[in-house]
Specification:
mainly alpha, 206 residues, elongated, 10 helices
């Protein structure tokens, strides 16, 4: 067992994440976190000086894990093709595969939960929320921009619009999967985005 308190800190983060996704930031209290984690108030404040500090730590951890998955999937796509359009389509296909492997619908998107109650956070945390998708937008936007430079599309579109379409379908799929308790909803919507991009670039095989 680690003796540096890392296990306790991780337990606090996991409990707080679930409470925040279930009840929102405003509906989550430090006392609830302490009770659910089975720790003392002193143990909580040893790791987090305030509720907002906990929220910032949760956000930082979420973005780190999200970005690690992005880089892993993009790296795999880049090994399979040198073409920017194919790299993007392979990435989306790999993302769909990951989502189809989920045993239950995602409980929600942490960043979206924060956006719903932005006024409750400090300016620093608000800025972190806004920057939450930056790495995804930068990397995927570059792939899409390069694809648009190389290929014609059946309809006028920008790289930003295509990225926004993926993000909108992803966030909407999280919500719908949670509402209807369907594990496949999110993967299906990501797959529909892939179909749309293929059709748009004339790459879809009948």
């Amino acid at each position: 067992m680690p003796r540096d308190g890392s296990a306790t800190k991780e337990k606090i983060l996991e409990v707080a994440k679930q409470l925040l996704l279930d009840h929102g930031y405003g509906g989550m209290s430090v006392d609830q976190v302490i009770e659910s984690a089975g720790i003392t108030k002193g143990a909580f404040f040893h790791h987090f000086k305030s509720k907002n500090a906990l929220a910032q730590a949760l956000l930082d951890r979420y973005i780190k894990v999200d970005d690690e998955m992005l880089h892993d999937l993009v790296g795999r796509a880049e090994k399979l093709s040198h073409d920017p359009l194919q790299q993007y389509l392979i990435f989306v296909g790999l993302l769909e595969e990951v989502l189809r492997g989920l045993n239950e619908p995602p409980p929600g998107c942490l960043i979206a939960s924060y956006i719903y109650q932005m006024e409750m956070f400090t300016p620093d945390t608000q800025q972190s929320v806004i920057e939450g998708f930056n790495e995804w937008e930068r990397i995927l936007g570059e792939k899409l921009e390069a694809a648009l430079q190389k290929y014609d599309t059946l309809l006028p579109v920008t790289a930003g619009q295509l990225y926004d379409n993926l993000l909108s379908l992803f966030e909407g799929g999280v919500i719908m999967g949670k509402v209807y308790r369907k594990t496949e909803t999110l993967a299906e919507q990501v797959g529909q985005h892939k179909n749309y991009v293929e059709l748009l670039f004339g790459q879809h095989e009948a």
